[in-house]
Each structure stands twice: as C-alpha cells, then as structure tokens.
Amino acid sequence: MSFRLFNLAWEEAPIVVIDVETTGVVPGVDAAVQVALVRFEKRKVVGRFCSLVDPNRLIPKEATAIHGIASEHVSDAPSIGAVFLDFDVRALLADAQPAAYNASFDQRFVLASAFEDWTWPWLDPLVAVRAVDRFVRGEGRHQLSAACARRGISLIGAHDAGADAEATGHLLYHVLSEVPAVVDQSLGTVLAWQRRTEADQWAGFNVWRSKQHEAEVAKAEKTSEKPKRARR
Questions:
Q1: To which H or E segment does residue 54 belong?
Q2: Which of 14, 21, 27, 100 is the most exposed place for a label (fewest CB within 10 A)?
Q3: By the 8 A CB rule, do 125 and 176 touch?
C-alpha cells in the first residue's frame, strides 16, 4: 500500500475488489472456499483472478445451497495462504486500494499478511448504498444484487466470487458518483467520509434496535398485566 494513493483523486486510484465465498459466517469457525480479485483502473477492469480454496473443513450443505461449492470441489484447491502468495494475486494487489461489498465480512476471511498495511481501510460501496438508497424500502434492498439492479449493472451468477467482485467494482464507481460529498475528491476524503457515515449508520441502527426492544418489552408487560377473568 502506498500513501500516494491517499491524495489521488479516488477515480484515479487503482482499486482491487475482493470477494469470498465461505463455509459460513463465523470467522475462526468458518473459512473461505472461493476467493476472487478484480482490479479496476479508471473504471475499467484490467485484471482478474478467481480460485477455489480448501477451507480445511467440511462445507455444510446450507453453504453449498448458496454458492454451489461442495467439499469434493475443493479437495485439490490451494489454501487461502497459498492463493495470496500467488504471483498474479500479488500483481493485482500492488499499489491498489482494496474494496469489498460489506467489507468487514470479507476482511475476516482474508489473511492479514496478504497486505502491506492491514490497518488501511477498505472501500465499501455498501456504506454509500445505504446512504444514497436510504429511502428505498423492501427486504434485501441493500443486497449487492438489488443495488446493482437499481443501477442497471449486470450481475449474472450471484454468489460466485468472480461475478460478485466484478459487479461490486462497477457498483462502487456508480454509487460514489452519486454522493455529492465525494465527487471529484481524493481517495483520502472518500475513506474519511465512509468512516464517518458508517459510524452514523451503526449508531442509527442501534437507536432503532433499542426502540424496537423497548416496544417489545412494553407490549409484553402490558399483556402480562391484563386482569384475569374471575372464576364462576
């Protein structure tokens, strides 16, 4: 990672989008079964890498139902460590800004040693989608496929790491261009905006969740306080 990226206009910075498919959702318990990297430069794809990964554990049928990858498919696959030592992968990562959709999830399944500076923040278009599409309603409205569909971005083969990574990159350019605060700004400005916005979203969600909990408790107490019918 080079600090020269920080002051570049964000659209000028090379961006490598990373996506993983996993055995489940619990880091440390679950592991990657597929990983993809797609490098973008000035909105265009300039390189791709996608590989199955041996998770060193059985893949539950519930996970296979989502991404179609079963244990027999990864029996000869490399480990996640070997993938990130691959020459082509190192070339894709070189001097590029990492990104992922719902980045905090993917980060937990990628080795910290794969990056020169693990503390460097990843771009996450989900944060911008939640901000720009905040008035959109409906279950799953912020899923990658839904956000792409609203912008006419093709996503064929969702839950394939390669397809998801490429769609995420195109979505990132689209949705950040819809945020007035970061248009024509530096990558550093975008990362700072993302951090502030993500913190506000987290706080807002927890305020909403707290009110929901209070309403449920009040409803339960009201129900329990109803007078019982006198026995005849």
A1: none
A2: 27
A3: yes
